[in-house]
Amino acid sequence: MFQKIAIATLLASLPISALAQDAEGAFTLPDLPYAADALAPVIDAETMELHHGRHHQSYVDNLNNAIEASDAPEGTALEDLVAQAGTFTTAIRNNAGGHWNHTFFWESMAPTDETGEMSPELTEAIDTVFGSQEAFRTAFQEAGTGQFGSGWVWLIVNDQNQLQITATPNQDNPLMDVADQQGTPLLGNDVWEHAYYLNYNNRRAEYLESWWDVVNWDVVSERYQAALAD
């Protein structure tokens, strides 16, 4: 079971900025790691401003409110709220997931001239599991397109130290104790309509295909090495 994976591995996958809490223990919205228009034309500035400044901000605000209205101790770390999501209220589960997922998402991307390259180790692992880079991308896109309604598609390292593609509904993620398939996320794409609708309308498959142009392979490769290091 995923719970047997050392906590250090889980922490290694967490974006540091998502852990930020102010002096009172409230969570805060992390800055984007690039300008709002830096991922255009794949993701336009207006979508980024709405997605980060409105949607992500609402998850942060609602998470703080949900914690205040619950029995969860103030100052509980985000990784604990996510890992133990099934023990908290639905509001905490949804909004802790929304906060973690979006911070992870922003940090998974970069402008097209700054995306780096997939490490040899990750390249070999993908080729071994999926057969080729093209087959991996096709499987990832199919999982994202096939996710009914809102949710996320992920590349994870599972408890067998194997790469696996999985999808989660709503704002769940593979770190949660409620996830059907648990593991350490390496890459995740948001398939909620607000992530792509202004540019792509209902063409989710087109968005998923275009998105590869802004995937930050340096970061994904670092996550893979961290997941295997434990």
UniProtKB/TrEMBL annotation:
Binding residues for Mn(2+): 51, 102, 190, 194
Enzyme Commission no: 1.15.1.1
GO molecular function: metal ion binding; superoxide dismutase activity
Gene Ontology cellular-component terms listed: cytoplasm
Catalytic activity: 2 superoxide + 2 H(+) = H2O2 + O2
Record has Oxidoreductase as a keyword: yes
Keyword terms of this UniProt record: Metal-binding, Oxidoreductase, Signal
SUPFAM superfamilies, sorted: Fe,Mn superoxide dismutase (SOD), C-terminal domain (SSF54719), Fe,Mn superoxide dismutase (SOD), N-terminal domain (SSF46609)
Signal peptide positions (record): 1-20
Listed Pfam families: Sod_Fe_C, Sod_Fe_N
Known function: Destroys radicals which are normally produced within the cells and which are toxic to biological systems.
Full protein name: Superoxide dismutase
